[in-house]
Write a structure and sequence with these properties.
It is built from 2 helices and 2 strands; from the N terminus they run H-E-E-H. By secondary structure, the protein is mostly helical. 11% of the residues are buried. Bound molecules: zinc ion (ZN) (2 copies). The site of one zinc ion (ZN) has 8 residues, from strand 2 and helix 2.
Length: 101
């Protein structure tokens, strides 16, 4: 979970990666301090898993302690869904430009 941004990342992407990295660190500290309890169950598929297999997903990096807990598989799905939504949105914008209204 190190901070290794791609060398060619844009400044906006870099800022986002940095914010997410900070959020992860704050969350880890909060867990270590006992402020946040890491569950052993995925909030999406409801599977019970060992703690190290549960991952915190930040909905908003400005709220490091506001996380959803997912298994690796669900976490991946969560991110690919957001990616797909963005791709669909971009395509919609492109289409509306061609159509002209
Ligand atoms: Zn899951
Ligand atoms: Zn996530």
């Amino acid at each position: 979970m190190g901070f290794r941004p791609s060398f060619f990342a844009s400044p906006r992407k870099l800022q986002f990666l940095w914010q997410r990295h900070q959020a992860q660190r704050k969350l880890e500290k909060a867990i270590a301090a006992g402020k946040v309890t890491k569950p052993t169950r995925c909030q999406r598929c409801k599977k019970t898993l060992p703690k190290h297999k549960i991952q915190g997903h930040h909905r908003d990096c400005k709220k490091p302690l506001d996380v959803k807990w997912y298994s690796q598989a669900c976490h991946d799905k969560q991110h690919s869904r957001r990616f797909q939504e963005k791709a669909a949105y971009r395509q919609m914008q492109r289409l509306s430009r061609i159509i002209g209204h």
